[in-house]
User: What shape does this take?
Amino acid sequence: MLHIKNGIVIDPKNGIDAEKMDIFVKNGKIVEESEVKGDVKVIDASNKLVVAGGFDMHAHIAGSKINVGREMRPEEMRTVRLVAGKFRASIGRVLLTSPAIGYEYAKMGYTSAFEAAQPPVGALHTHEELDAIPMIDKAALPVFGNWHFVLKYVAEKNWEKLRTFIAWAIERTKGFGVKVVNPGGVEAWMYGGNCKSLDDEVPGFGVTPREIITALIQETENLNLSHSVHLHCNNLGTPGNYETTIESMKLASKFSNDRRQVLHVTHVQFNAYSGSSWRDVGSGAAEIAKYVNSVDNITIDMGQPIFGHATAMTGDAPFQFTLHKLTGARWSNKDSEIEGGAGIVPIGYLPKNPIHALQWAIGLELGLLVDSDKVVLSTDYPNGGPFTEYPYIMAMLMSRKMREKELERVSPYVQKATGLAAIDREKTLFEVIQMTRSLPARVMGLDSKGHLGFGADADIAIYNFDPLTVDVTNDFETVYKVFKTSAYTIKGGEIIAMNGELVKEVWGRTFWVDATSKVEMEAIESDLDEMFSKYYSLERQNYGVEESWIKKPERLVMG
Amino acid sequence: MLILKPKFDFEISVEAEITPALALATDEEISNYQVYYGKDKAKLSDLFEISREGDDAKLLLDGDFSKVKWIGARMDEGEIVVKGDIGDHCGAYMTGGKIVVEGNALDWIGAEMKGGEIEVNGNVRNYVGCAYWGNMTGMTGGKITVKGNAGNYIGEKMGGGEIEIMGDTGDFVGTEMKDGTIVIHGNCGFVGGDMKGGTIKIKGNFELVPGFRKVEDGFEGDVNAGGKGKVLQL
Amino acid sequence: MAEEVNIICTFCGSVCDDVQFDLEKFKGKKFCKLGSSKFSKKERIKAPMIDGKEVSYEEAIEKAAEILVNAKRPLLYGWASTVNEAIRLGVLLTEKVRGVYDQCASVCHAPGTLALIEEGVPGGSLGEIKNRADMVVFWGSNPMEAHPRHPVRYSVRAKGLLIKDRKDRKVVVVDVRKTKSANMADLFIQIKPGYDYPVLSALRAIIKGEEDAVPEEVGGVKKEQLKELAEMMKSAKYGAVLYGLGVTQSRGRDRNVENAIKLIQLLNRYTRWIIWPMRGHYNVVGAGEVPAWEAGYTYAIDFSRGYPRFSPGEFSANEILQRGDCDAALIIASDPAAHFPKVSVKHLKKIPVIQIDPFPNMTTLLSDVVIPSAVAGLEAEGTAYRMDGIPFRVKKIVDTEYWSDEKILELMLEKVNELQR
Ligand code: SF4
Ligand SMILES: [Zn+2]
Assistant: This one.
């Protein structure tokens, strides 16, 4: 049991903005004072900020992609963070080993992180790696947008089967929701092509990205899954693609859900370019922000680039090939059964490079211009860079002064191609806490996360920082430093890190969503048998992950 | 000058990142200088007999150092003389000074070196002046001279400097080389794959990989890399 | 009625998962002869032994832990024929005792890993080859002998989405001799031993339109024939190069694979091609993947400084043994005494050796501590990765007194922790 005393609490979900109050913890949950009696550990949080543990809802932390990244980039693994002893050895520059991922999140006050793209046939691998990440809670989003079952049912307009298939697939992969990556485009890549516009036809199926996205939103909503469709848009990384992005967002307009958004568009920075070529490329962030702010059924995350090393790894295989051609860098690709594909290319963001600076500015524009209950802070780790630099993004969003200083060291191209320099807006600490805690939890549909109300998981971060006295707009250096390492990180009621040092190794849960009771599996049984025997190279009976193979599974039954 | 002699035959390899700068340290610092002997950290004096002659920045390694790695890595000035053989990574990342190996050297001699000089009287094994795994550029400056033969992978991804091998070498001379010079006096195997720039001069026989065009004084390529590297007969 | 159950073959990297196993007859349907031999009743190591004397599992494991803890630089080698759960414990154990982790790939397909470091690997799963590949090139690989069911299930006669018939697919074998696999090919190209690299460079130059930089004959192959092959490759819709030990273990090694990858990168500018290694042991992929997520690298990993470092020519088992650079060894699911060069074996004989294996082999004879284990896929379950990285949970279908590798290593790790305390 814990008694966190006299902290300054910011808890956006419960409308608490920098109030001095006490928090009580029992059996891993936040409870009322009356429940905590006897042997209670008191943490003096006087003059300290107390918030919910950070929640990274979109990062690539487990599975074949990041692992190939590690294998391909030994130069990334030479940074030593911790020598083996009480804890595991922890290494990595931006790409980290599994223990390092858990440790670094914990040190920063983050307590949950979700793998944003799980290749379905590789689900077991993803779960093995999630199981190797200590300290945090986790989950994985299986990828749907190019899976032949989906393309087939969309072509047949057989919504019952599509719905049933979604439930089947999430159960088999022990996944959390419906991720969609470049819908149709990755199937086109198998023929050397791509689907750059929403109306490009997918070879062999006669369907379009527009139809795939719409159908997947529709059936995800019919199943009323915990999380909405999570979309990596078509035409990623191309000048002028902001229009595709807005068009994709509009596909959600006829759907609504009072609990959450019906469409989450991810790492929007990579999909927010105006212009017609790399010569006249500019920012489409303002237009996107305008659209997102005008509706109440869409959320996004930033995909903020951090200057320095990064590794592009996405299920968007044709984009990865384009990137390889553009930069001449190493290129890994994986075409994966009849499910889609993926690619991996090392990259780096240089402040003086006009394109990189542009990307950096667009990410910030999105973070600033989009309402704080609609934009989640992310780097799309490791695509935009390390998650350990989230404090940099937080500080930048809160301080115009810091932005002005940073603008001095980047390519002047951003001055004419983006509106960043002219943005006065400074997000408040409350908003930044919202963007890193309560909002991602809401986007994922997890009521027990992202806040400090009674009944919430006791995932808590305490920072050496008094919001009542520190001026976040002027003391941006302090803000940055303070958020890098928590004074305390509490996971499930246990202190796991203090002042940047690990205290205790714990193992979080893996959430997965079970919607099978909402469908009749019979509807797709024969299709499954047929497609497996014809097009898979493995037996249907050997496909998927059983709950008992996972270290600490937590099934969320969709009622 | 600091003189080191192994105290006994090393059972397993020793990692000793020592440079001539050590000769300028106090006796105590030298004696306590940390080296690695398997999982155990050891003091320099646990493994080596240490003596001094004069106080110049010079190391004399007297005996069999073939199990000792990382000698002279990152050194920037002074001199190291190895009386016998030397282990892996000798002179890696060095920026200045001189290393003389009177015996043979193992792998990674002068890897990613930027300046200075390495001379080996005997033979060397693989990865001479190469880039470490995952890195983009091998040696960029300085000179490596080998009086004997060399193994495979010579000056891969080399970005500058000079490698001269008096004897024969194995395969992959100047693969993905960008700049600098490699001179081979003996025979060698595959030469020049994906060469982008720089010059390779060979006296003996060699196997130029496809991708080179005959030009006036030799060959130019590799066309596969859009390269303008030169392979010339010495 | 005899009981038949589905099992997943844990012999070669094909990891065929369609085998029906008759428990009474102890026989599987659909096995190739390599698979059925692995799954037949064979001589086993009877019991745990210390210096040839039978002891309990606990005693043997305790002794093993002592050896590892007392060593300055233990080598923990093998891993390719066990499951990920055991491999993971092996990596943790190596980290604890600050030893060297290495696995069988270092003597077979590791050059592919090095090529991956240089260029990445544009690949695909076996199902995609089955569904789409209208051209398959076996380069220095001999599936008919090393992966007998691979051609039928995935790569030659396999039918799928776009390939409805064997005739829809061109099969080419490139090798230094006419192998059994060459007989099933539509085209066989014989190259001079040790000349994979220049032949690949030549193909690249031809495809790039720079054929004037290619001599009339390369590696024993006429330019005309290379042009023909280049043309075939360029006009395929979806091609796959499946390479084997002929490429990785002959002159050129990692550079051969790197060159082949560069060829594939180039071909993707015209059409679709992938490249993939024909990995040997059923879980040699897992033996690289698990340490990659736990410790950042796939093989040749030294933990002597308390954190992982990677250096193939330095920390790979054979190299370490040849140099006499370890003072104890744990060998699991592998037989270096039979396959390593004499010098290496000589050093193994000098140092304390712990063996974990279901079956006796040459290494048993020189081991001080022998710990027999259950056969994964038959007597023990766990995760294994097929050659293309697709994960499978191999099954336990019969009971046994033998401990699984996982259980053995779990206790060993515990004992090591106790001793270090
Ligand atoms: S091909 Fe390999 S996996 Fe398949 S049955 Fe034969 S030995 Fe087993
Ligand atoms: Zn992502």
Remarks:
- Residues 54-444 of chain A form a domain with the TIM Barrel fold (CATH 3.20.20.140).
